[in-house]
Amino acid sequence: MPVAIVSGLSRAAKHGILVKGGKALEILARVRSLVIDKTGTLTHGRAHIVATDVVADVSADEVLRLAASLDQASKHIIAQTIVDDARRKGLELTIPGNVIETPGEGIEGCIDGQPVIVGGLRFVSGKIGATSLSRLHTQRPPGSVAVAVAMDARLVGVLILVDRVRAGTEALLRDLKSLGLARIVLATGDRRDVAEAVAGGLPIDAVRWELSPDQKTLVVLSERKNGPVMMIGDGINDAPALAAADLGMAMGAKGAAASAEAADVVLLVDQLDRVLPAIKIARRSRFIALESVYAGLGLSVLGMIAAALGQITPVQGAIFQELIDIAVILNALRALHDRPV
What we know:
- The strands form two sheets. The chain has a seven-stranded mixed β-sheet with strand order 1-13-12-11-2-9-10, with helices on both faces. A six-stranded antiparallel β-sheet has the order 3-8-7-6-5-4, with helices on both faces.
- The chain contains 13 helices and 13 strands.
- It is α/β, with parallel strands linked by helices.
- Strand 5 (about 105-110) and strand 6 (about 115-120) form a beta hairpin.
- The protein is elongated.
- Among the domains are: about 30-45 and about 165-275, HAD superfamily/HAD-like (Rossmann fold), CATH 3.40.50.1000; about 50-160, Calcium-transporting ATPase, cytoplasmic domain N, CATH 3.40.1110.
- Helix content is about 45%, strand content about 20%.
């Protein structure tokens, strides 16, 4: 592996960016399109419950308790938020049984002997055959996330959560555009109004909503026509898309282990702005690597021509080649040195 690439890997690590090999660093330097997840990536992923729409004859705390009890078995960032909110309220949670999770959509199981389903409106309505969920769409603030809770095949309530876009996101996306990224696409499993509310005011070229993990993968594959595609995500539902992208980047600090395993690059700090130095480091390392290769080959050819013309002796030629190798290595080590990124 070229010295410049190894130096780039080391320098990226100093910035909290784990790049899994030289090939990943080279692809990172050439990305032309970005597909980015919303929850936990573009936003903090720590939404807070702002309201509870109770549908059945149960209390709001009971709706939260049922959802949190079942969500204990899920690693999804929203599920963890619901569990945390329930514990802060001092609610006594039950250990769930017979749990079946559909990544990125919802979870089913038994709580206190009763079948409970928690997830997106579409997922839960598909399980219980409810058609009345659509009326709740107008009762939610823009950009909010709705988590439906059903028990014994009937809807009991909907939790309304609001997440915030990370500070500096607009500036980051504009900087990525200035680096030459042709397209930025938001891909999320949330509904249309949530996705569009988050994307509003941001330099995003396209928004894809209500996506299953398989559909996110198709979005990534469809963007390849514009050049190498980078996918950024954090949840287990992002893992297939991360693996399908030319370069997958995972938010490793708080994200799911599956996404970090599938990704080629892992951000070890919970800061999306690390994407910018990652690309700059990759591009500088690749430039220095190519510069060293071309310079080394050029000087070696000159040495061979001089030797063929009898201008230098074989011993002088060997010494000249060693000096070329040393110069090329020293030049490649420039990729290790810190400079503003």
